[in-house]
Design a protein that fits this description.
homodimer, about 280 residues, alpha+beta, PSTPO5379-like, PSTPO5379-like fold, 2 domains, seven-stranded antiparallel sheet, four-stranded antiparallel sheet, about 20% helix, globular, EC 4.2.1.- (chains A, B), UPF0317 (chains A, B), D-Glu_cyclase (chains A, B), Putative hydro-lyase CATMQ487_17220 (chains A, B)
Amino acid sequence: MNPCDSHSPTASNGLTAQSTGREVRQAARSGRLSGHTSGLAREQVQANLAILPASLAGDFLRFCQRNPKPCPLLAVSEPGQYLLDELGEDLDIRSDVPRYRVWQHGELVAEPTDLREFWRDDLVTFALGCSFSFEHGLLAAGIALRHVQQGRNVAMYRTNIATRSAGPFHGPMVVSMRPMKAADAIRAVQITARVPEVHGAPIHLGDPALIGIGNLARPDYGDAVEVLPDELPVFWACGVTPQSAIATARPAFCITHAPGHMLVTDRLNRHLGLG
Amino acid sequence: MNPCDSHSPTASNGLTAQSTGREVRQAARSGRLSGHTSGLAREQVQANLAILPASLAGDFLRFCQRNPKPCPLLAVSEPGQYLLDELGEDLDIRSDVPRYRVWQHGELVAEPTDLREFWRDDLVTFALGCSFSFEHGLLAAGIALRHVQQGRNVAMYRTNIATRSAGPFHGPMVVSMRPMKAADAIRAVQITARVPEVHGAPIHLGDPALIGIGNLARPDYGDAVEVLPDELPVFWACGVTPQSAIATARPAFCITHAPGHMLVTDRLNRHLGLG
C-alpha cells in the first residue's frame, strides 16, 4: 500500500495545482475526480486516511502517539462523525476522497469512490500528515527530487526499526527514500525538521544496511530510483507505516484511502512552515 | 594552525569550566594563564582572533562577509581600538588572550603572551566564532564527540571547496570532521543550523572524496580519529580557513591567537541558541 503515490499528471476535470482543497473535494464528491490527488491543490495539506471502529481507535491513537514520526496526527474525529470542519469547510469524509479501500480481516474487499454504504456510527477517522507537504517545501527550496522528475512514485522500504506497539498495532517502520547530494541532504534536514506534522526530519541517511534495507533497487512499495555516486540516500519515516501496522493487526473492519488518492484539506502547507 | 585546539585539561591556576570570561581574561592578563582555554568558562563563547593592519582590514572583512560559514564574524574593532566592550567587560585585546602569534610576511616571528610591545594604532581586530560553542551544544544534546572522549584535537582537512576571494585573501575551505551515527548526524544538523555565529550547519557529510579529502586518517591539522563502520564523517566549515587565507596572503604584519589559546568573551553559548 502506498498512501502518497506518484506525482504523475492527473486527469483533472478542470482541477489544477491552483485548485482549492474544497474544489478538489467537491470534484471527488460529485464523481468528477476518482484519480490521484498528486499535483492538485499544491498549496493545501493532503492527508493519509485511516478509519477504524471505536473499539480499536484508542489503541490506534496510542500507536500514533508513540510513533509520531511515521504517524503524525493531523486530526481525529469523534465516533461516527463524518463532517470534519477541523480539516476543511464542508468536508465530508464519506465522499470527499477520490477513492477508498475497505478492508475486512486484512483483506481488501472493495475500492469504492463513496463510503456512504459502508459508513457506521462507531467509525473514528484519523488524518495523518503526508510527505507531499514536505516535498512541496523541498522543491520550493530548489532541491530536485528524482522520483518527481521521472514521474515515478517515491521508493519505500520496510526497515529493521521497530515501531512502539499499542494494542494489536505493531510492526516495522516503513521509510521513503530520496537520493540527494550531501549539501542538499543537509538543507533537507533543516527544512523538514520544521514540520513534525508531516514526518519531520529524516530518520536515517547513508548506508541502507544499517536500518535493515538490503537492496535499494528493490523497494517494498513504490518505484526504485537510481542513487548516483555523488549522492546519499536520505530516509524519512513514511505514512505507509500505520497502514502496514493495520494490515498486521487485521482488524475485522477498516477503511483507508486508496494509494495516491489523498484527503485534500483546507490547511496550507505554508502554515506548516513550508514555502 | 589550529584555532580550536584540544579539549585536554588545562593547568588552571584556579580556573575551571565554571569560571567567568572575565576571570579567564584576568588570569591571561596577569600571566597566571598561558595555556589552552579549552574546558575553561564553558558557558562563554570563545573566539578565533585575527588582527590586521587597517590597509588590509577592508579586504579581510569582505573575505569574511563572502565566506560566512568558515568566517563567522562576532566583532570587528575600530583601527587601533584595543578595548572591546562589545565582547566583554574590561576586555583588552592586547593582554587578555593567553598566547598570541605574530606573523611577518607569512613567517611566525613571535609567540608572546602580551601584545603591548607589538601594538600599532592601525591594527583592526576580528573575532570569529569557534566550534567550541557548538560542541558544547552537541554534548549537551547527548551527542558523543570522539575527539573529546579521547582528549584529542579535532581532525581538520583542506578541501577542494574554494572560498570566495577578496583582495589578497583566498584559498581552500578548511573543515573539521566529527564521526557520528546517522541519527546523531541528523540531530547535529538541526542543532548547529541554529547557530550561524559558530559555523552553522555542516557543509558535507559522507564520502570525503567528494570534497577533495583523500584520506581521513591523515588530517591536515589536528588529530585523526577513527570513523566506525556504522558512522558517517560529518564536516563543518572551520575557523582555520581564515588563518589559512592569511597565511596565503602573507601580509607584512598580522597577529593571531596561538592554537587553542582563544579569546574568552562574556557572551553566553546559550544566547546563541545552544544549551
